[in-house]
Specification:
heterotrimer; A: about 325 residues; alpha+beta; Rossmann fold; OB fold (Dihydrolipoamide Acetyltransferase, E2P); six-stranded mixed beta sheet; five-stranded antiparallel beta sheet; 9 helices; 18 strands; C: about 300 residues; mainly alpha; two-stranded antiparallel ribbon; 2 strands; about 0% strand
Chain lengths: ~325, ~270, ~300
């Protein structure tokens, strides 16, 4: 497999702010790649480095093996679905979608036909004559998608494309996007701050923190084996255990993570605490235990007994579920 | 806080607006008076003959023509220069940005007499003879800011994303300008041009310094005010001047409704 | 066959776009150069010429301009008659500015806080139209109003209030045969002409006062007049200052209004005009024109400190 996008020690500094700081990254062709991180972590800047709206302060970026340090955005065969969609307000939906073909010199007939095809791909067959202002948020999002895809880009960049949609629509669009990506075999690079979205959609993802990549891997890797406390904190609802607690639980004196699903409640054990909170989740109940100042959550499956708030309980787990982490 | 204005405030506000508008109505009334030597109120009689008299007065047409010419050229120059300046200033911040914005504003922030006297000094020192172009030079200078203000207000409201989206979709800078920027900026530029035209057509202070012996329509009017001949004819011309400024302003307002382009900055 | 990841540049426009992308400063430079050249050469060049002229002097016998550096011309500004002109102009500008602020406030306040929908548009248009419409026509309209035989005199006679006008005209310093030849007439017309320039920035400043802030102060037990004094007025002040820049500056330099309405006592603008025209004393005219610049520079510096420019 060739690399669709490759970052080699890329930095982008704005004055003293290191928005992106020494990032190495390889995005495989045909993959659905997510960049996950809190706002200001550098993920959007990375996306803009790929599209060419930002230039690296240092380092090299390659798109399908070609160095793009001298290539302006309009010559990069890469398209973006912008966060606010950035549809052209003075054009109707069809002209919006056909825009990329028009500026490349395609004749009117063929380009409008292709635009219609693309609109039907995103299920907006009868909306060609409308202005963007007459559409709902979800419809605008589809137009933005069609407008990018009609150019047959080698890489599609999506900047928090679902951020403005309500929950139900967002979930539907997640499935649709994923299906579309599979069908087209395109490389998608997806920026989001929503860990569930990233985990459920991506083939692989990079977790950003303060301009650096904290961890890169498959969703499973990142969820099960967070490399750092930051990743564990940000990605999962994993329990983060300080070294002394890890040792008390039978591990080495090191930071570790323990998923709530792998944590059981027991009557006796090396570590116990008071139940401080209960949250009913439908499929089970999340029980939070205060173990000497560290909060540990355990997921009790539906149908099993749940302790009362204030009760004392010990915790237990399979030794293999305890995952040791670096200190960063 | 009360949700309704007090009676006094309402009266003061509406009274203030009437104060701004009523005087202009008198111009219209006096164009129809039969009394040509004084401003007697009420007019002793009404007539429409002054419109015909004005039409046949040969001394009115050359100033009118000159004013139209100057306003047209000054507007075109101001639209080009003002748009370029707005495009540059709307982009990034750069060293000297504040100084440049002050420089653009200065010709209207300082009294017209200074602009006029400055140009007059420069023409004197460089031995430049007065012509249509010396008038245009002054007018274009203070019209730049009008177009600039309109253009930059629109650019700021415009989502910056659409310019990036255009480049992202493969358009080069010229295509982006033609297909995205210009259509979205068009009405604001037109409004700026309208206001610039109105301002130039009506300008008298700077013009008296840069016109020499030439006479624009406002200069003609000024002379009539100082040494009146047929007073109602002056009113007829005043109506023409008023209409020539009023109509473009109204159009400009409708073109930029919802924005604040025409507010804040005046002549 | 898939498309290449990097498209080839087709033609000069594509290549130039690439150059602009690699060198963003270049595009900026190309855009800003023409207007900067124009303003730099035509405007700043002229201002420099003005300054230069003001350091020349006039030969009192031949009336020819001597192109030699001297401060003699500036010294002339301090002659009693010239100082009079400057002081009279500054006093007038100050009075006009204060009157504009007082008259503008209810209009701006009503438009900013109470006018809704159509009324709001009507108020906006109602202020904007007089601001932009013909200056000379507006001045002329007041000539018609203030003339002895005009509408104001007629109305005063009809309502038996002529004594008010006569009273104003008998005040020392405001004498005249009618309002249109009295300095009071000059003042009224100045106020009328520049009033919209005060209303708009004031309204803009007042519109930025959030309603919640007024409600909060009312909740805290402030009376209407306390709210006005301690909340509204300080917040409106930047707008007042922004507006006053216009009313003050425009009055300083105007020479049409005192020429048409008033007792033909001289103001800075009128003096500049007469000196460069009939008198042919361009150096002194230039020196006089520098005076409003200096006054405005001082004024703008003070205004900037008060944060007036945020309200523009």
């Amino acid at each position: 497999m060739t690399a669709a996008v490759e970052f080699q020690n890329v930095s982008r500094h704005f004055g003293t702010v290191r928005a992106v700081d020494g990032v190495d990254l390889t995005i495989a062709e045909g993959s659905f790649f997510a960049m996950l991180g809190p706002s200001g972590s550098g993920k959007t800047t990375c996306l803009r480095l790929i599209s060419g709206f930002e230039k690296p302060t240092s380092g090299a970026i390659r798109i399908f093996g070609e160095d793009v340090s001298q290539t302006p955005p309009h010559l990069r065969n890469v398209n973006t679905v912008f966060q606010d969609y950035a549809l052209f307000p003075h054009m109707n939906v069809r002209d919006n979608v056909a825009y990329g073909l028009m500026v490349k010199g395609m004749a009117k007939g063929p380009r409008l036909r292709k635009a219609e095809e693309m609109l039907s791909l995103v299920k907006l067959d009868d909306y060609g004559d409308r202005k963007p202002a007459q559409l709902s948020g979800g419809q605008r999002q589809r137009v933005a998608l069609a407008r990018a895809l009609v150019n047959e880009p080698r890489v599609l960049l999506l900047d928090e494309p679902l951020g403005a949609l309500d929950l139900k629509l967002r979930e539907a669009m997640q499935d649709e996007l994923k299906a579309l990506q599979k069908r087209l075999g395109l490389t998608f690079v997806f920026v989001t701050h929503d860990q569930h979205e990233a985990l459920s959609m991506a083939d692989s993802l990079a977790v950003f923190n303060e301009g650096k990549i904290a961890q890169i891997g498959t969703p499973q890797d990142i969820y099960d084996r967070p490399a750092t406390r930051f990743v564990a904190d940000f990605v999962g609802s994993s329990n983060v255990l300080p070294p002394d607690l890890t040792r008390a639980l039978g591990g080495p004196s090191q930071w570790a993570s323990l998923r709530p699903e792998a944590t059981r409640l027991a009557t006796t054990g090396p570590v116990s605490g008071t139940v401080t909170a209960l949250r009913y989740l439908g499929s089970g109940t999340r029980v939070v235990i205060d173990a000497g100042g560290t909060e540990i959550a355990a997921l009790v499956p539906a149908g099993q007994p749940v302790p009362a708030e204030g009760a004392t309980t010990a915790i237990a787990f399979e030794p293999s579920a305890l995952h040791l982490m670096g200190t960063a | 806080m009360r949700s309704d204005a007090s009676w006094g405030l309402k009266a003061a506000a509406i009274g203030g607006l009437l104060f701004l508008h009523l005087p202009i109505l008198l111009i219209f009334l006096y164009a129809f008076t039969t009394e040509e030597r004084s401003y007697a109120f009420p007019p002793p009689g009404l007539t429409t003959e002054w419109f015909a008299v004005a039409w046949n007065r040969e001394d009115i047409w050359p100033p009118l023509w000159l004013s139209l010419q100057v306003a047209a050229i000054a507007t075109v120059l101001a639209m080009i220069l003002g748009t370029l300046a707005a495009a540059a200033m709307a982009r990034a911040s750069f060293f000297g940005r504040d100084q440049i914005s002050l420089l653009i504003l200065l010709p209207i922030a300082l009294p017209g007499v200074i602009t006029g006297m400055s140009l007059r000094s420069a023409f004197g020192i460089m031995d430049i003879p007065f012509s249509t172009w010396t008038i245009v030079l002054g007018h274009a200078t203070f019209c730049i800011v009008i177009v600039y203000n309109n253009a930059i207000a629109r650019m700021r409201r415009l989502s910056g994303g659409i310019l990036e989206a255009s480049a992202d979709l493969g358009a080069n800078s010229f295509q982006t300008f033609r297909y995205v920027l210009l259509p979205n900026l068009g009405s604001a530029l037109l409004a700026g041009g309208m206001l610039a035209f109105a301002l130039s057509f009506d300008e008298v202070i700077v013009t008296t310094f840069t016109a020499g012996q030439q006479s624009t329509l406002p200069i003609w009017m000024l002379n009539e005010l100082v040494r009146p001949r047929q007073r109602p004819v002056t009113n007829v011309v005043a109506i023409v001047v008023f209409a020539a400024t009023f109509v473009p302003i109204l159009i400009a307002y409708y073109l930029t409704r919802g924005g604040s382009e025409t507010a804040g900055m005046g002549k | 066959m898939t498309a290449p990841a990097i498209l080839p540049a087709k033609g000069a426009a594509d290549r130039l776009t690439g150059v602009f992308w690699r060198q963003p400063r270049l595009l900026l430079l190309l855009l800003i150069t023409p207007p900067l050249l124009w303003l730099g050469v035509v405007y700043l060049g002229s201002l420099a010429a003005l300054l230069l002229q003001s350091f020349y002097s006039i030969d009192e016998f031949s009336g020819v301009v001597k192109e030699e550096f001297t401060l003699k011309t500036y010294a002339e500004l301090f002659r009693a008659q010239n100082l009079d002109i400057i002081i009279r102009t500054v006093v007038m500008a100050t009075a006009v500015t204060l009157a504009c602020a007082v008259l503008a406030f209810p209009i701006a306040y009503y438009a900013a806080r109470y006018a809704k929908g159509h009324w709001k548009a009507a108020f906006y248009l109602g202020v904007m139209l007089p601001l932009w419409s013909s200056y000379l026509v507006k001045v002329y309209a007041w000539k018609l109003i203030l003339a002895k035989e005009g509408i104001l005199g007629w109305a005063a006679e009809g309502t038996h209030t002529s004594w008010i006008i006569e009273g104003i005209l008998s005040i020392p310093g405001l004498e005249g045969s009618s309002l249109s030849t009295s300095p009071f007439g000059t003042f009224v017309v100045f106020v009328y002409i520049w009033l919209p320039y005060m209303i708009l920035p004031m309204q803009a400043a007042l519109e930025r006062v959030p309603n919640s802030m007024l409600e909060a102060s009312a909740d805290l037990g402030a009376t209407q007049s306390q709210i006005f004094r301690t909340v509204i007025l300080p917040l409106a002040l930047p707008g007042v200052i922004a507006g006053s820049i216009f009313t003050f500056s425009l009055t300083l330099g105007d020479y049409i209004i005192p020429q048409i309405i008033g007792d033909s006592s001289r103001f800075i603008g009128l003096t500049v005009y007469q000196l460069q025209g009939t008198a042919g004393n361009t150096p002194l005219a230039a020196a006089f024109a520098v005076v409003p610049i200096l006054i405005m520079v001082i004024y703008l510096t003070l205004a900037k400190r008060a944060g007036a420019f945020d309200a523009l």
